[in-house]
């Protein structure tokens, strides 16, 4: 998979948002929290994740590029709040009382647990196959190998060859 390149201007916008929100937290707690590391390596359909021990925020580069400032305004503070909650309260429920308070009272944002981005571009597509005993989902890569006649796949349970269910779209 190719690494998605994030334009410098967008990376700067991420850092501006991060620093502005971090500043609010520093003022509120009178603590010089270190700046979290931002990594553009989140895979799959998650917009971002907070790595509490590593003090790191991983952002999904594809969703960032597609949603730009909506993504930044929503995901960066959300993940930062997870780090701050961990630093101040330890291991508590991820979107519980402490997190909601951190979002609302400290970072001055509405606390919504989930993001509403369209994820179709990062959803991995699979293709339905059938053996004798069950249905299977093959990845695009395997499906293409079957179509090109390069590979065939067998069910590990019944040993039968998998057949593509052509008219079932999933
Ligand atoms: Zn969260
Ligand atoms: Zn089977």
From TrEMBL:
<feature type="active site">
    <location>
        <position position="79"/>
    </location>
</feature>
<keyword id="KW-0479">Metal-binding</keyword>
<dbReference type="Pfam" id="PF10263">
    <property type="entry name" value="SprT-like"/>
</dbReference>
<dbReference type="InterPro" id="IPR006640">
    <property type="entry name" value="SprT-like_domain"/>
</dbReference>
<feature type="binding site">
    <location>
        <position position="82"/>
    </location>
    <ligand>
        <name>Zn(2+)</name>
    </ligand>
</feature>
<comment type="similarity">
    <text>Belongs to the SprT family.</text>
</comment>
<dbReference type="GO" id="GO:0006950">
    <property type="term" value="P:response to stress"/>
</dbReference>
<keyword id="KW-0862">Zinc</keyword>
<dbReference type="Pfam" id="PF17283">
    <property type="entry name" value="Zn_ribbon_SprT"/>
</dbReference>
<dbReference type="GO" id="GO:0008270">
    <property type="term" value="F:zinc ion binding"/>
</dbReference>
<keyword id="KW-0963">Cytoplasm</keyword>
<dbReference type="GO" id="GO:0005737">
    <property type="term" value="C:cytoplasm"/>
</dbReference>
<dbReference type="InterPro" id="IPR023483">
    <property type="entry name" value="Uncharacterised_SprT"/>
</dbReference>
<feature type="domain" description="SprT-like">
    <location>
        <begin position="16"/>
        <end position="165"/>
    </location>
</feature>
<protein>
    <recommendedName>
        <fullName>Protein SprT</fullName>
    </recommendedName>
</protein>
<dbReference type="InterPro" id="IPR035240">
    <property type="entry name" value="SprT_Zn_ribbon"/>
</dbReference>
<feature type="binding site">
    <location>
        <position position="78"/>
    </location>
    <ligand>
        <name>Zn(2+)</name>
    </ligand>
</feature>
């Amino acid at each position: 998979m190719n690494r998605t390149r994030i334009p410098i201007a967008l990376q700067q916008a991420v850092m501006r948002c991060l620093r502005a929100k971090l500043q609010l937290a520093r003022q509120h707690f009178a603590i010089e929290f270190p700046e979290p590391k931002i990594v553009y390596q989140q895979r799959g359909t998650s917009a971002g994740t907070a790595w509490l021990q590593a003090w790191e925020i991983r952002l999904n580069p594809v969703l960032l590029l597609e949603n730009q400032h909506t993504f930044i305004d929503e995901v960066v503070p959300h993940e930062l709040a997870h780090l701050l909650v961990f630093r101040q309260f330890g291991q508590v429920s991820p979107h519980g009382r402490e997190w909601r308070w951190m979002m609302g009272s400290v970072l001055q944002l509405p606390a919504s647990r989930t993001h509403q981005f369209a994820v179709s571009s990062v959803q991995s597509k699979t293709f339905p196959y059938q053996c004798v005993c069950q249905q299977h989902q093959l990845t695009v890569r395997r499906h293409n190998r079957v179509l090109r006649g390069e590979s065939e796949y067998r069910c590990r349970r019944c040993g039968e060859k998998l057949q593509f269910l052509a008219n079932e779209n999933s």
